[in-house]
Design goal:
The chain is 38% helix and 18% strand. It has 276 residues and is α/β, with parallel strands linked by helices.
Length: 276
């Protein structure tokens, strides 16, 4: 949105994006308030619970409460592109920086921008070292067990149908760093995006894998999955036949920050290393 003068060592930071909130915490900074990921959620993801006990909720990240923000008197507001319409109002309250967001595929650029803007280069490098140390240990634990296996990541949405998460997504990039392969239909880098919407039930075989991770959120989405699981087509999937279908938390697997990446790696240990 142009140039912004960011104060040195700000103490009262507000984040108007859950992705920004997570990345800020990775850098060792604790905001006084933040916004939730979705309009029908009134809290932060479980992997952030220990960090957000004293963080004031501002509503959802598309329509945060401007009144609450003003009353909190922040010295810096950090947000994301989708709230650019209210930027003029926010910038009257305090210096405001909005980060470009192109889906979870832009998570590394998002993190880098925040680190540079806040002068946290040392913390930034330390966080990446921790991530790649965990990746290295997981690779050793996996050995060659999944060398020729395909790992699929899908969501079931009552609004968008079956969603396929590709290599350029946040979870896809983690699998790629580990050296785990995705099915051919997911083994792509989309120029502007991280997912393929509207996969029909008839095309479900295209996103099948030896292991299938399902991202779930709302009850109505889970019901859509349950309906599909009762159909003969579901039982023909390789992952289903092998009993290797695992349901994981969508807000964690799409968290787009290194705290979420830690939690995803924990899930990969749980289901790919420690599973009997």
């Amino acid at each position: 949105m142009g140039k912004t003068c960011i104060p040195k060592n700000p103490n009262r930071i507000i984040t108007v994006s859950q992705f920004t909130l997570g990345n800020l915490l990775v850098l060792g900074l604790y905001p006084i308030a933040g916004a939730s990921a979705l309009t029908d959620l009134n809290g932060f993801p479980s992997y952030l619970e220990t960090y957000t006990k004293n963080v004031v909720m501002l509503g959802n990240q598309y329509q945060p409460s401007i009144e609450k923000i003003a009353l909190l008197q922040p010295d810096l507001i950090l947000g994301w592109g989708p709230i650019r319409k209210i930027y003029p109002l926010l910038s009257q309250i305090s210096p405001t920086a909005l980060v470009t967001w192109k889906g979870t595929s832009s998570w590394k650029e998002h993190f880098q921008f925040l680190a540079q803007a806040l002068g946290k280069e040392e913390e930034y490098q330390k966080a990446w070292r921790h991530y790649f140390q965990r990746i290295k240990k997981l690779k050793i634990a996996l050995n060659d067990r999944y060398k020729d296996k395909k790992i699929s990541i899908v969501s079931f949405s009552s609004s968008y149908g079956i969603i396929s998460w590709v290599k350029s997504s946040f979870p896809g990039s983690i699998l790629n760093d580990i050296g785990l392969q995705q099915p051919k239909a997911q083994d792509v880098i989309l120029p502007r995006g991280d997912r393929i919407y509207g996969i029909s039930e008839e095309r479900l075989q295209e996103v099948d894998g030896d292991i299938l991770f399902i991202l779930t959120l709302r009850e109505r989405d889970s019901k859509k999955l349950e309906q599909l699981q009762n159909k003969p087509l579901w039982k023909t999937l390789k992952a289903v036949r092998k009993g290797q279908v695992y349901t994981v938390d969508v807000l964690t697997w799409l968290g787009s920050n290194l705290l979420a990446a830690d939690a995803v790696i924990d899930d990969l240990y749980k289901y790919l290393v420690n599973k009997p």
